[in-house]
């Protein structure tokens, strides 16, 4: 996705026009224009020159964002408030001349304020002064006229067009009245002179421009506050680093730090770039990135991130990520990208804004014609028409969604919750099901050996020696637990050969002439008879929530090593909060059913799906999607497909880079309690968007008929000046409402409400494992797989001819007899279905 800065937009109609033009460019697959940040996100293979030309064709200018600058600098430039100072100057100058204009136009008439003697009785001179003062104010605010009429020329009228037309109409009619009054005064017709004096609307033309400028300034100031969180992150970026070169410490600009450089950080200093500690230890405050207030201890080998603060000791670190690759830069990029995208709710406003301004111009013209046909004077009809033009506000509609998204994503970033797109920020609040991977998400992901149960003929050291040798080449977390125990007891692995992995089942290897096997109860039970006392012990360990691993030496059963993984301190509370929000919580795990149930029961899980192989998670998520919007929470490489398949993928920040890249939401603190917090924030943002859209729509629904004079029967009319003031305040009110989100407490349970959704079907027995004889090759696997997946009740089938198994993932209940008949019709023998 490439981002551009777009200049010249003044309302939602402008952004809709730009978006439509860019989408016509060959190679553009999607385009999202954000009026709030004056940014445009474009996906596809179209070149930037063609895209910029399309923007120019629409009547605006564009430039590629960050073409010659770093992430922080380019984003900072995009969010720098350059418009408010200009508006303040325009407003000050306008007010000075407006006060003088109001003195001449109304002061002496309403408050009997004196005029200079040479104006006494000379009404034409007074009119000429008003004209000149109005022209000055129009020149000061010429941007409305330039942008408005250029947009009208390009057949894409916007808010500036409405202001320009309203102000111009008042001015032109006033000039006509002045000329007519001059003619009457020359003819000596004093009554006509006074009549034309009442037709002056110079002050209306000037006041419309001034009031709209006031509104624009308030809007820009409020919009600036919506990006405070992001600008706060950018200010954290260190500007210098202290490097160690040739044994000396030198201070260099941050841009000169390269990967592999050694830098030092003293107590109280910010860490300049991401790196790895090579000397020293300290407590590092990571609140800027994660929102976590408690400092984290760092020792040699631990990683540190840019913009975090060294609180205590001296550290020497080696730079691992610099420039735009640092964690801080990536966070800024994610939040910036999220603000450049559009939430689904904004599509309604965009469609409406596309025809809103032309419709308003048509209504204003119709208002003028109707009142003239009814018999009203031209001045009255023109006033009603001008009021329609200046009260109509497409800006409020255009700002309703992006301001809420910007504030919401900023709050998330301050609390270590990163929403990658506006769509994600909206969809997270609609989640009905949360599926959570067990290891590393609900649990710490650091399993430890708790029990060593040798079989007859083996002792503890012998069993552990066998296990360490077999597990040495495995990358599974349970293998790391066995290796850690071996290291504690001084047991080193022996060299093995013919090492092989059966995912979800077990391991096999050879030491000399001896064959070693290790794995699940099912895997070992297929190779040797497990003694009754060992089987009973396996069940006892499973009931305790431990994972038993069984080992074999040649044809002899060697024993059990049980491993357990501690549940995170906040997991129970997080799951309880999710359930209180009306969300169904499901745990996915490869553990045996009994162990999984014990962990699920302790954690408070609604439903446990056990025995899930890594490559089956995606299929499970696909099945669950048919039951409601689902979020998947995971941290590992094997979670990436399921994270991508879910409606909302949530990655634990400490997980693998692949999981983080695939996910829609990244939790920097790696705490499960941030999952309900993210959903809570999403719901609050969605509520805020709906409120903004409601007020933006209702304002125009009530205001336009009032301005047109539809309520004159009950004595309600609207002066164009007050119409301009109302239009100015409408956008300010929408932005101010979005800023209320800054006070939302994402960890508070006070506003949790259970969502309403249809009756959710409980997952059927998810899998059935079939033992099949007769399969000899991959062709056999494919025949069985194709036959099973052709059944209407089967979601997918994983077939392995080496193991003689078919693991069938079901959509709903399927009879064993049907599964058996299907496989045997292909010429194979089914011996067991479990």
Task: Considering the chains and any ligands shown, give keywords for the structure.
834 residues; 6-stranded antiparallel β-sheet
How does this model look, in words?
The model is unreliable at 758-764 (pLDDT under 50). Strand 22 (584-588), helix 23 (593-603) and strand 23 form a beta-alpha-beta unit. It is elongated and about 130 Å long. With 834 residues, the chain is of the alpha+beta class. Helix 5 (123-140) runs antiparallel to helix 7 (159-187) and helix 13 (346-374) runs antiparallel to helix 15. It has a seven-stranded mixed sheet with strand order 14-26-25-24-15-22-23, sandwiched between helices. It has a six-stranded antiparallel sheet with strand order 16-21-20-19-18-17.
Q: What portion of residues is helical? A: 40-55%
Q: What is the helix tally?
A: 30
What general form does the structure show?
elongated
Q: Which structural class should the secondary elements be placed in?
A: alpha+beta
Largest sheet: 7 strands, mixed
Task: Kindly report the average pLDDT value.
Answer: 82
Strand and helix layout:
Layout: E1 2-7, H1 12-23, E2 28-34, E3 39-44, H2 48-57, E4 61-64, H3 71-79, H4 83-110, H5 123-140, H6 142-153, H7 159-187, H8 190-197, H9 202-226, H10 228-235, E5 240-245, E6 248-253, E7 262-265, E8 274-279, E9 282-285, H11 287-290, E10 296-298, E11 303-304, E12 309-310, E13 315-321, H12 327-340, H13 346-374, H14 378-391, H15 394-414, E14 417-419, H16 422-427, E15 433-437, H17 438-442, E16 448-454, H18 460-471, H19 477-488, E17 497-502, E18 506-511, E19 514-519, H20 521-525, H21 532-543, E20 547-553, E21 556-564, H22 571-580, E22 584-588, H23 593-603, E23 607-609, H24 617-624, E24 630-634, H25 640-645, E25 648-652, H26 657-662, E26 665-667, H27 674-708, H28 720-739, E27 767-773, H29 778-789, E28 794-800, E29 805-810, H30 816-824, E30 829-833
Parallel strand pairs: 15-22, 15-24, 22-23, 24-25, 25-26
Antiparallel strand pairs: 1-3, 1-4, 2-3, 5-6, 7-13, 8-11, 8-13, 9-10, 9-12, 14-26, 16-21, 17-18, 18-19, 19-20, 20-21, 27-29, 27-30, 28-29
């Amino acid at each position: 996705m490439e981002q551009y800065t777009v200049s010249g937009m003044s309302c939602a109609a402008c952004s809709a026009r730009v978006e439509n033009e860019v989408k016509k460019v060959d190679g553009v697959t999607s385009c999202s224009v954000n009026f709030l940040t004056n940014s445009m996100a474009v996906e596809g293979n179209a070149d930037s020159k063609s895209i910029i030309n399309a923007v120019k064709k629409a009547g605006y200018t564009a430039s590629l964002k960050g073409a010659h600058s770093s992430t922080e600098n380019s984003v900072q430039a995009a969010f720098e408030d350059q418009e408010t100072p200009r508006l303040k100057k325009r407003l000050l100058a306008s007010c000075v001349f407006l006060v003088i204009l109001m003195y001449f136009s109304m002061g002496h008439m309403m408050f009997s304020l004196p005029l200079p003697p040479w104006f006494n009785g000379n009404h034409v001179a007074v009119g000429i002064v008003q004209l000149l003062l109005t022209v000055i104010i129009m020149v000061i605010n010429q941007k409305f006229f330039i942008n408005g009429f250029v947009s009208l020329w390009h057949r894409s009228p916007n808010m500036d067009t409405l202001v320009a037309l309203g102000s111009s109409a008042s001015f032109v009619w006033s000039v006509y009245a002045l000329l007519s009054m001059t003619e009457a005064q020359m003819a000596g017709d004093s009554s006509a002179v006074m009549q034309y004096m009442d037709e002056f609307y110079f002050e209306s033309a000037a006041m419309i421009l001034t009031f709209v400028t006031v509104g624009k300034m308030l809007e820009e100031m409020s919009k600036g506050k919506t990006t405070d969180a992001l600008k706060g992150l950018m200010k954290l970026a260190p500007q210098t680093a202290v490097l160690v070169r040739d044994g000396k410490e030198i201070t260099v600009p941050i841009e000169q730090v390269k990967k592999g450089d050694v830098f030092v950080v003293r107590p109280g200093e910010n860490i300049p770039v991401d790196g790895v500690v090579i000397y020293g230890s300290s407590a590092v405050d990571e609140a800027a990135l994660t929102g976590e207030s408690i400092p984290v201890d760092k020792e040699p080998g631990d990683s540190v991130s840019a913009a975090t603060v060294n609180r205590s000791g001296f550290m020497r670190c080696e730079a691992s990520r610099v420039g735009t690759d640092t964690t801080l830069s990536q966070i800024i990029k994610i939040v910036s990208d999220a603000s450049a995208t559009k939430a689904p709710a904004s599509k309604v406003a965009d469609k409406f804004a596309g025809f809103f301004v032309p419709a308003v111009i048509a209504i204003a013209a119709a208002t003028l014609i109707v009142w003239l046909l009814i018999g009203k004077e031209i001045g009255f009809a023109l006033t009603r028409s001008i009021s329609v033009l200046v009260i109509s506000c497409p800006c409020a509609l255009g700002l309703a969604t992006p301001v809420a998204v910007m504030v919401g994503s900023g709050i998330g970033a301050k609390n270590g919750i990163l929403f990658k797109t506006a769509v994600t920020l909206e969809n997270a609040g609609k989640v009905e099901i949360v599926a959570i991977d067990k290891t590393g998400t609900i649990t710490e992901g650091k399993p430890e050996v708790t029990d060593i149960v040798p079989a007859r003929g083996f002792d503890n050291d012998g069993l552990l020696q066998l296990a360490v040798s077999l597990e040495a080449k495995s990358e599974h977390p349970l293998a790391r637990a066995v290796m850690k125990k071996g290291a504690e007891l001084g047991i080193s692995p022996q060299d093995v050969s013919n090492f092989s992995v059966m995912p979800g089942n077990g391991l096999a290897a050879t030491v000399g002439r001896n064959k070693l096997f290790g794995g699940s109860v099912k895997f070992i039970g297929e190779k040797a008879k497990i003694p009754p006392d060992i089987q009973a012990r396996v069940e006892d360990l499973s009931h305790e929530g431990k994972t038993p691993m069984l080992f074999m030496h040649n044809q002899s059963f060697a024993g059990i090593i049980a491993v357990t993984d501690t549940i995170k301190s906040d997991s129970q509370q997080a799951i309880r909060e999710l359930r209180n929000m009306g969300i169904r919580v499901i745990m996915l795990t490869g553990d045996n059913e009994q162990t999984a149930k014990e962990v699920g029961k302790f954690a408070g899980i609604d439903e446990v799906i056990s025995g899930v192989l890594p490559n089956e998670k995606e299929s499970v998520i696909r099945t669950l999607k048919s039951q409601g919007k689902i979020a998947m929470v995971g941290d590992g490489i094997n979670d990436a497909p399921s994270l991508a398949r879910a409606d909302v993928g949530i990655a634990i920040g400490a997980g693998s880079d692949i999981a983080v890249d695939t996910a829609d939401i990244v939790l920097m603190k790696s705490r499960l309690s941030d999952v309900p917090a993210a959903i809570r924030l999403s719901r609050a943002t969605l509520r805020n968007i709906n409120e903004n859209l409601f007020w933006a729509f209702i304002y125009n629904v009530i205001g336009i008929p009032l301005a047109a004079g539809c309520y004159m029967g009950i004595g309600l009319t609207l002066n164009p000046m007050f119409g301009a003031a109302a239009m100015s305040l409408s956008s300010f009110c929408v932005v101010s409402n979005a800023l209320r989100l800054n006070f939302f407490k994402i960890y508070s349970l006070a506003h949790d409400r259970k969502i309403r959704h249809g009756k959710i079907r409980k997952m059927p027995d998810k899998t059935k494992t079939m033992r099949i004889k007769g399969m000899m090759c991959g062709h056999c696997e494919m025949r069985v797989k194709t036959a099973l997946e052709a059944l209407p009740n089967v979601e997918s089938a994983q077939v392995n001819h080496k193991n003689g198994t078919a693991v069938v993932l079901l959509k709903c209940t399927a009879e064993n007899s049907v599964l058996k008949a299907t496989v045997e019709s292909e010429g194979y023998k089914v011996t067991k279905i479990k």
